[in-house]
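Homework help board

Subject: predicted structure for assignment chain

Our instructor gave us this sequence and asked us to write out the predicted structure in token form, then describe one feature. I got the tokens but I'm not sure how to describe them. Can anyone check?
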Amino acid sequence: MRNAGVLTLFLGLMAVAVADGRSPTALTVSELLAGQSGSAPIANSAFYPGENALPAPPFAGTLRLQATALKTNPTLLNPMQQGRDGRIFPGVSLELFTVDDRLIPARMGEMIAESAPGPAHSYWHLIVQAGRVWREPGDGGWSRASLPVMLVADQENQAQQGLATFIYRDGRVSGLRLQFVQQSAPWLLQHFFAWGFVPVLVTPPDRSTLASRREAARAELADRFPAKPWSELLQSVPRGALDGFGGPLLPKWRVETALVRNGTLYYQDSLTPYGPYPYPLEMRFGVRSVSKSVTAPLALLHLAQVYGPWVLNLKIGDYVPGLDPKWQRIRFLDAADMATGFGGTGSFQTHPNNISDGYLEGNYDAWYSAPSVAEKIKCINSTHPYPWDPGTVVRYRDQDFFLLGVALDAFLKSKRGPDADIWDMIGQEVLAPIGVRHTPAVRTQEPDGKRGVVLFNASYYPTLEDLARIALLFQDLGAHQGRQILNRELTADLLAGRGALRKDGDASIQHATDDEAKVGLYAMGFHFVPYITTEHRPLHLPTMQGAGENEVMLYPNGVVSIIMGNALRVPEGESAKSDAGPETIRAVERLGSLTP
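My token output:
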């Protein structure tokens, strides 16, 4: 599963592909009608209209996709996970319709579960985003359609970004040619490419609702966050100002990078061995622990706005039964600060403290793979408390955020009834008002078929736009269009790092503060990265960080930098980062002072 040699092979394949300069090779009508999967992925440009594309007639229908074995390179070492096969494209139904030249999935932005499995169940769910339709000269009356497609896991926060295309004419469709050429950082599986051809049956759409759904989709597209390609930003800033942006993460480990400035999202090309990914704004990422900076603060700060700041001081043990007695003293806020004083697998040394001490030790893998709330709690109960008090020492623990999510869900149910759900609350009361309409996320898998609890530690599959909107909500101190969604005072405290804990110390012991500007801090899911500006002003930049080198950094001047990476499995002896230091922060500073 964690074989560095496989990852080395993967990187070698990437290097060969880029060195080849593979030319765009359009899929022919005959290839699509014949159902050819090919011997390897092809240029991504074949999945997107070119300069000579012509308008296509409307399309509407439901595609019933057959569960199909994909080809992979390299061969998956451990494709079976809990009885499900990572090599199988899931059998699902996709209802699609056009809005002008855009191809819209009726369930856009949702995690679509397998509904028609083959002999083996697929490991994957599907997320499908808005695509395009067009005609190519010489296609003999056939029209083309393409979609950005993500294979996403429902038991860990992993995404394989891909593309699908088919042709249609007079109610007929070909099958889908698919390829997956980029990925968020995997854990249970490995880095790989996949491709194949999926047989399709098409049925007519529900005409009675088609017009209303088209209008809703048109409104959603019109409400998209303003976005422009990176080249337009480069034209508006001094030459060389943005050199190094995305660093120190090395380019081969970057999935996507972007900058939010003056209300616009500027995005770079998402490079793959088969050319740029043609739908960068539609990509959804497995952001791993960036989820911590979304789930916990949005839930806690919104509940503080609705019910009062006292919510932060409620105790985990009062809402999650069957835990060690120490949890009766551990506040919701302590869990969000990863300062529960629980875990017991690291050392007892706290001054200086190592935030990662004991993180992946003990029964972490068993806890990580346990599907249900009860099974995860059983694993947690096999660990032991540390001797220090809650709220004093930061030790990185996914389990703390998991229990926080379970406790917050139970608290919400105590207020609103058994059908209340903490992630639904975040989606409906926080994210939807700021324009984030879709919130796909990983939940626990319960044996009785009940809906699971969203994993607060690592679950969310956002787009660049989603991350931009969330970051700006924080920067606007929880207000949006005159409405206070998050508690303003607590949000201001969070962004300023007031009350944040030093990663290197023990809050119960007095510390000298002369090096405070150089020390990283942590609070409520945010890392606070120290930086000394060219004006010699010390800053702690609130940052969302996730495994694989995912990073969303908020600057006091309103700018946001976004870096999505896949550097979770780096070969032994190799580094994912250069020694150049905080290149991205320096690039942002060259655009102007980091402070207002």
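Reply (TA_rk): Your tokens look well-formed. For the description, you could write something like this. DSSP finds 13 helices and 29 strands in the chain. That's the kind of observation they're looking for.
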